[in-house]
Amino acid sequence: MMTEIEFRSFEDIEWRVSDDQDGTFEGFACRYGKRDSYGTTFQAGCFKRGIDRRDYALLFMHDPTRPVGTFRAEERDDHLWITGRYDDTQAGRDARAMARSGSAPELSVGFVRTDIDPRKLAEMDEEAYRDAVENIRSARLVEVSQITARMAAVPGSKLKTVRSALGELYAATDAPTLDERVREERERIAAEERLRERQRRAALLRLTTIGGA
């Protein structure tokens, strides 16, 4: 299964920051059935088994060292809905102010896909492969971040989970892309098939030699 954390943001995401001083917010973190800039589409029910019932940290710009609040997530028919509260810290108050001013008004979802396996993808034909890659049918929510205006996650970003230190939850990496991993898997499968063919021919040659003796 995939372990790389991916990010998506949507131009028409709506969320509301309370006018009161309680620091609450709510809104859409993800819409289903809409094609994003990566060419992928979240399908309804994709987070059904991938949401914790406990609080998540609201991060700023996907930086795990910059939490600005907490939230809980709920999957609905056509979207992922979050409700939460900003921390009563300077970072939390600043993030709330930036959401209200419009300098950092957008949300971006960090998640791990749980519906694809490079080994299985490598065995698919091109049509089935594209359908599996482009439609997100199952995923685990990792975090939601508040991001600055028009700063959607860049397609092709390579980030992964670092399992050691919490302070290094995300780290840039030169790990291969999904397409590269599938290509490597297809090359491995082809190499195994060639080996089996050589072994089959060698076995036939031995039988022929024995039979002709």
Automatic annotation (TrEMBL):
UniProt-recorded Gene Ontology molecular function terms? peptidase activity
What InterPro entries does the database record attribute to this sequence? Peptidase_S78_dom
One family from Pfam that matches here is: Peptidase_S78
GO biological process entries: proteolysis
Going by the entry's taxonomy, the superkingdom of the source organism is recorded as Bacteria
Q: Describe the location of the Prohead serine protease domain by residue ranges.
A: 13-160
Q: Which UniProt keywords apply?
A: Hydrolase, Protease, Viral release from host cell
What is the protein's name according to its record?
HK97 family phage prohead protease
What phylogenetic lineage does the species belong to? Bacteria, Bacillati, Actinomycetota, Actinomycetes, Kitasatosporales
